[in-house]
Structures are given as structure tokens and as C-alpha cells.
Amino acid sequence: MADKGDMKRDTTDANPNLVSDTDARHGTGYSGLFSKGSTRKPVPRTKVLTEAELHSPHYKMDHAKRGKAIIINNKEFKGNMGLGDRKGTDVDASVMYRRLEELDFDVTLEHNLTADKMQHLLNNLSLEDHNDCDSLFVVVLSHGEDGVVFGTEGSVEVKKLFEPFKGDRCPSLAGKPKIFAIQACRGSQFDDGLDVTVADAEGMMEVDRTVRTQSIPAEADFLVAYSVVPGYYSWRNSTNGSWFIQALSSALEDKKLKDLDFLRLLTVVNRRVAYCFQSQTSDPRMALKKQIPCITSMLTKEIYFTPK
């Protein structure tokens, strides 16, 4: 939760012309890594799963490598876009870089990509050989609207970011978790919240047993963690970073949560964003607003970042 010194600095990841926020916008610099491309070998276009992998209730996490992680950090946008700089996003990029490295991902951080370059980067990533990898993790930090995220010049449909990794387009990731975390607005509505009397009550959700099949749906094994539900603004603090990434980073770092499968950990993230954050701004139209992330799961198994 933002401390008192950060009041009046919350803003949204949307077109500032929709609602203005003239509060202080302090950012922190971060010099990250840039992908320079890689030499690729032909990748087999089929995938074979062992019986053990097929019937296991959790994803196999004992490959030679954890896998590739890409962070796309879009902070500055062309003037004709009408989008302001995303102050605080460098904090998000920095903490996620550390968290993913701690999970043993091979992390690449890219700054200020156009929509075309975002697609090109992910298309190229899908052509790499991931046979020795456990999973894939992609983080997108940008402005957005319903169904799209913005590059520095133009927008790209969110669904197009997933497409290179579906079905036979990336068979070396078939049957493996492909995780996307997207920090961006998804509309122009504010969540005013609701005053309630809260009583703690937590439960566990059972995951259905995997049914034996001879094929894998092209849409299977994706997990998309959006910072907000469709139609709403997503909040970012200009000093501490976005609410969603703050909560996600904190949960990944929390040793008490290390034994949770990743989907349940994201439920903790939802709870923290919902209950621990509220917008602080001098603009009464934007003050005291709330936010709830949105998890879209096509997973068929549980994700543990330690071998089970």
C-alpha cells in the first residue's frame, strides 16, 4: 500500500485525455538488458508427452532450464499517441526482473517497443527450441484499452501476443505452462468499491484430474494474469510502481507462500490488490478508487516452481 508520502501520485495506465491527473509524477531510472537476437536451430514440429507427464497433477519442472522470461517495459510513447509517460514502470520492470531471476528464468528486459516490435519479439521467441525448458513467462507493462495494449507507436491486440505460442506454432512448449502478466488498463471505468464488514474465510480449490487424451487443445496451458478486469482502469503509483506488480512481486518473494501453486498465489495477489490499495489523488474524480486483477486460466495442471 502506498505510504502517506506517496499520496496524490496514483495514476492509471490509460489515455490521459480520458481523465487528467496533474499530480506529481516521479520516476526512477533503471538500466536493463536488451535482447540482441539469438541463433536458432530448426525445432521439431511435433511434441511427445510421456505417460507420467500426461497423468501428473502438476507440470514437470525438472527440465535442464526453467525457461525464457521476457519483460516488455513501455514507458514513453510518441506524441501523436496522446499517452503520457508511465512514471513508476521502471520500478515494476526492476522488481519483476529480480523475481524472475530468483525463479531461475533466463530474463530479457526490453524497453519502449513499438507494437510491431512487440509482436516480432514474441514471434521470434516462439521459434526457439524450448524442449529443455519448464515454461515461459511474459510480462507486459504498458498503457492499454479494452482488448489491446500499446506499443510506443500504435496498439496490438492482446490475443495476438499469445498466438505465436499456440498449438503447432510452438510445439516445444506444448503441454508446458505459458504465463503472461499484463499491467495495463482495460477500459475507462473506475471501481468505486463497496464498504463491507469483512470476515476472513479461505478455502482450497481442487484441480480436476487430468483426463488422458491423444491431443492437446491449442488454447491449453496458458495462464494470463491481467492487472484489472475488463472495462476498468489499472492503477500505477509514480514512485512505487503499479499496484498489481507490487502485489505480484511481494507474493513471489514471500517465503510463506513458496509452497503454493502459482494459480493460488495469484489469488493472494488478487486479495492484496483488492484490500490493501486505494487511490490517493487530489482529483476527486479519481480519489478512493479500487481495483481487482483478473486471472484467466487455461491450465490443465498445477504450477510449482520447484520440482515435485
Describe this structure in words.
It is a single chain. This protein has 308 residues and is an alpha/beta fold. It has 6 helices and 12 strands. The strands form 3 sheets. It has a 6-stranded mixed beta sheet, with helices on one face. Strands 1-10-11 form a 3-stranded antiparallel beta sheet. A hairpin with a 2-residue loop joins strand 5 and strand 6. The longest helix has 15 residues.
Fraction in beta strands: 15-25%
Shape: globular
For the largest sheet, list the strands in their spatial order: 3-2-4-8-9-12
Mean pLDDT: 85
Task: Note the total helix count.
Answer: 6
Low-confidence stretches: 1-6, 19-40, 203-214
Helix content: 10-25%
Radius of gyration: 19 Å
Biggest sheet layout: 6 strands, mixed
Structural class, please? alpha/beta
Tell me how many strands there are. Answer: 12
Order of helices and strands: EHEHEHEEEEHEEEEHHE
Cα(first) to Cα(last) distance is 34 Å
Summarize the structure.
The chain is an alpha/beta fold and 308 residues long.
Blueprint of the fold:
Elements: E1 10-12, H1 51-55, E2 65-73, H2 89-102, E3 106-111, H3 115-127, E4 133-141, E5 144-145, E6 148-150, E7 155-157, H4 158-162, E8 178-183, E9 222-226, E10 235-237, E11 241-242, H5 243-253, H6 262-276, E12 294-297
Parallel strand pairs: 2-3, 2-4, 4-8, 8-9
Antiparallel strand pairs: 1-10, 5-6, 6-7, 9-12, 10-11
Helix pairs in contact: 2-5, 5-6
Structural key phrases:
308 residues; alpha/beta; 6-stranded mixed β-sheet; 3-stranded antiparallel β-sheet; 6 helices; disordered N terminus
